Amino acid sequence: MRRISVLAAVVVLFVLAGVVPAQAAQTGIRAADPSVIRVGSSTYVGVQSYDGGIGVRTATSPDALASSAVSKVWSDTAGFGEVWAPEVVYDGGRYYIYFAAGTGAAHRMYVISSTAATSGYTAATKLNLPDDKWAIDGILVTFNSQRWFVWSGWAGDTNVEQNLYIARMSSPTTATGARYAIA
C-alpha cells in the first residue's frame, strides 16, 4: 500500500510541476531527450544535449523554439563522458539543468545553474544521490513546498534491474535521506 501511495504522489508531482514529456516533442526540436518549460506567461526554455555539452533555446512560443538559436551553456571540458537527457527546472529565480554524464556504469547525475536561461551557468556539480549508484534521466519536482528528485537508476553496481527512484531534496542541489524505489 505504501508503494502505491508513493507512486501516486510522484504522478501528482509531475502533473503539478508541469513536467510534460510530450511537450518537447511538440516543439519540433530535433534532439535526443529535449526538455521544455514555460517561465512566466510567454517564455519557453528548451534544453538539449548539444555538441559535447548542453545547449539552451528560448522563444515566446513552443513552435518558435525549433528555429531559435542554440546557446551552448556547458561543455564537457572535464571529460565526464556521454552527456544524456538534460532537464531544465526554474526554482527560486534560478534555472537548474540536471543531466546524466559518464561512461557505462559510471553515469551519474550532475547539475548546473544560472539566473539567466542562456548564459552564466555554474560549473557542473555531481549530485550526491543516496547510495551513489548509476543514475540517468533525473528531474527535480516540488510538491507542497517540498523538493523531490526522481531518476532512473540501478539497484546495485551492475545493470541487473533498472528502477525509478525518488529522494527528498533540502535544496535544488542537495539530496537528504534515503532513496526509495517507486517503480
How does this structure look, described?
The chain is mainly β. The chain has one domain (2-181): Tachylectin-2, Chain A (5 Propeller). It is built from three helices and twelve strands, in the order H-H-E-E-E-H-E-E-E-E-E-E-E-E-E.
Secondary structure blueprint with pairings:
Layout: H1 2-17, H2 21-26, E1 35-39, E2 43-50, E3 53-59, H3 62-65, E4 71-75, E5 82-91, E6 94-102, E7 108-114, E8 125-126, E9 135-143, E10 146-154, E11 162-171, E12 174-181
Antiparallel strand pairs: 1-2, 2-3, 3-4, 5-6, 6-7, 7-8, 9-10, 10-11, 11-12
Short description:
This protein has helices at about 1-15, 20-25, 60-65; strands at about 35-40, 45-50, 55-60, 70-75, 80-90, 95-100, 110-115, 125, 135-145, 145-155, 160-170, 175-180.
Keyphrases for this structure?
183 residues; 49% strand; four-stranded antiparallel sheet; mainly beta; Tachylectin-2, Chain A
CATH architecture term = 5 Propeller
Q: Would you state the CATH class? A: Mainly Beta
Helix-strand makeup class: mainly beta
Biggest sheet: strands side by side, in what order?
1-2-3-4
Strand percentage, roughly? over 45%
Per the CATH scheme, the topology name is Tachylectin-2, Chain A
